[in-house]
Write a structure and sequence with these properties.
CATH topology: TIM Barrel
CATH class: Alpha Beta
CATH superfamily: Metal-dependent hydrolases
Number of helices: 11
Strand order of the largest sheet: 1-2-3-4-5-6-7-8
Structural class: alpha/beta
Bound molecules: zinc ion
Radius of gyration: 18 Å
CATH architecture: Alpha-Beta Barrel
Number of domains: 1
Number of strands: 8
Helix content: 25-40%
Order of helices and strands: EHHEEHEHEHHEHEHHEHH
Length: about 290
């Protein structure tokens, strides 16, 4: 089965060296390409993390990707089998620079590999539906690209969970019914809230990235976390529409073959092609032209 990884990171950051090692990897471009070959991963969507992009219009520039080389702002110089979502530095946006920020993002959005926008609430103390994000949502609507939202637990203790709770996606989804929002990490551990927001709103999808860190032994995980994985299965079934669920890894956080197995336990067999491949192709609708 061919796979699209709808949520991973491709970022040259010191902290990722240990995170990758914990999952049995090196945080390198060569390592990622080897993983793709060994696991039949046809394409990956990387979430923008860089912090050095320069401003052109007086707004806050997007966070991009750069594991093999610094991102070339004019010509896409990252892997051909990868696209990216532009990361948003929400705390730096305000009423007076929000429109200029959307222009900064618009500079990239025409690139074939620019697939969407990524918000980091929880890490950024700004709610999803905050009006400073609205020009970015209008941009997403105009260019038909999804907005991915970090939801649930934060990797750092200084994150604030009230901003990353999956229920906060509901209000933005209602205000922008023509924009597709992706609840990343299925709101973990608020799986039921994520499932309900996706069940209620036609324009809300879920990605299943980052639910099992590192490279634990499979059998103890199945035993110790049986309740968690059963709940994930239960609430996805409650939501009832597997066309809105995408496999994602959050690499380098997870061990890929292990994670593929765990997620395949949760997804009904006849839905696997859609969850591991077809849904990402439809939701990140520019991928098709890149395959
Ligand atoms: Zn992530």
């Amino acid at each position: 089965m061919k796979i699209i990884d709808a949520h991973m990171h491709y970022y040259n950051k010191d902290g990722f060296v240990q995170v990758a090692a914990n999952a049995g990897y090196e945080n390198t471009a060569a390592c990622w390409q080897r993983i793709c070959e060994e696991n039949n991963i046809a394409f990956a969507v990387a979430m923008g993390n860089t912090m050095y992009t320069s401003s052109r219009y007086g707004g806050i520039p997007p966070r991009l990707i750069d594991l093999a080389a610094p991102f070339d702002e004019e010509n896409y110089n990252q892997p051909a089998n990868m696209g990216y979502c532009m990361g948003v530095q929400s705390e730096l946006i305000n009423e007076s620079n929000a429109e200029a920020t959307a222009r900064e993002f618009e500079h990239y959005i025409g690139q074939p590999h620019c697939l969407g926008i990524k918000l980091y609430p929880g890490y950024e103390s700004v709610y999803v539906n905050d009006k400073r994000h609205w020009p970015l949502f209008e941009l997403a609507r105009a260019y038909h690209v999804p907005v991915v939202i970090h939801t649930g637990d934060t990797a750092r203790p200084d994150g604030l969970l009230k901003y990353s709770h999956p229920l906060t996606v509901d209000e933005a989804a209602v205000n922008f019914p023509d924009v597709t929002f992706v609840i990343a990490h299925c709101g973990c551990p608020w799986l039921v809230d994520a499932a309900e927001v996706a069940a209620k709103n036609a324009n809300v999808c879920i990605d299943l990235s980052g639910l099992l860190e590192g490279k634990p032994k499979l059998l103890p995980v199945l035993e110790q976390q049986a309740g968690f994985w059963r709940q994930l299965h239960t609430w996805l079934a409650y939501m009832g529409d597997y066309s809105k669920v995408m496999y994602g890894s959050d690499w380098p956080l997870v061990n890929i073959p292990l994670y593929l197995r765990m997620i395949s336990y949760v997804i009904p067999d006849k839905q696997c092609e859609a969850v591991f491949y077809g849904n990402a192709l439809r939701i990140f609708n520019k991928i098709g032209a890149l395959l």
